[in-house]
Amino acid sequence: RAKEKGGNTFQLYRSEMNIRSLERLNMEIDLRRAMERGEIMVYYQPIVDLGSGRIYGMEALVRWKHPIRGMISPAEFIPLAEETGLIVPIGNWVLKEACRQNEEWISQGLPPLVVAVNISVNQFQQPGFIQLIKGTLESTGLDPKLLCLEITENVAMKNVNYIVETIDKLRELGVRISIDDFGTGYSSLSYLKRFRVHTLKIDQSFIQELTTDEENAAIVTALIAMSHKMNIKALAEGVETKAQLEFLRRYGCDEIQGYLFSTPLPVSDFEHLIRVNRNLSEVLR
Ligand code: C2E
Ligand code: MG
Ligand code: MG
Ligand code: MG
Question: What range(s) does the EAL domain occupy (predicted)?
Fold first, then answer.
């Protein structure tokens, strides 16, 4: 009986696997077509300067508006895009669109903001990446100072020397660099030492329970102090409460990003936010 049951479990497992790989395959086919069909779009989440309380910049976050499944979050399709290499054309499209949109706002007379774009290690390691950045800045007319590239430390970081050199060349172009999701995954302090970045983005997992978990509080205050000693700005991701904000302010965190101020927004909603020049004190009122 037990054997029979085991057999059934195996069968069930197998058919589940088949369904899953079929779903994956369908999703890959859909994703390949998504760009041509205009289903890939960019949302923007404001990044606020804690000193002034004003919007300093925004992170460009990719969205996939699937015709049947609706809005699909990057957590669902970025891993697939990474595996299939589709991340390169998708990521390059997001980069260009974010630069174009930022320049459009500036040409409309809105205050200049820094747009942060996530760059996959896969994309970063493509030959001609520096040229791609140069070309994107030239064709969109965006000031290099108003572009920030976010890189995540990753197990795929094989050629660390190459990454170090690429970051230095990007800095020479005038582009800003941040290290994303710091403190999780494969992050290491030796990377932070070798990658000459402008901003360290403290992962949101440390910001949650910041005011109730002593370990998180210790990690976050240490990361802020360390960044400052290395002449790097500290940005806290995933700030959701006033208590977290007050804590971060007390310890001198430079910038915040999170639902407390705003979720990621479609272009028109983000534009409204910058037109009315929304600042932190209005949110806290
Ligand atoms: P990330 O770069 O760390 O982006 C921040 C994520 O945290 C975003 O998720 C954002 O919506 C979410 N977030 C912001 N504030 C809060 C908050 O207060 N609470 C909580 N719980 N979450 C918050 P999203 O947009 O789903 O993106 C997930 C990840 O997908 C990004 O993490 C990034 O790693 C990746 N990603 C997004 N767009 C791109 C892209 O264009 N290229 C690449 N390579 N990766 C991207
Ligand atoms: Mg990011
Ligand atoms: Mg992040
Ligand atoms: Mg993250």
Answer: 24-278
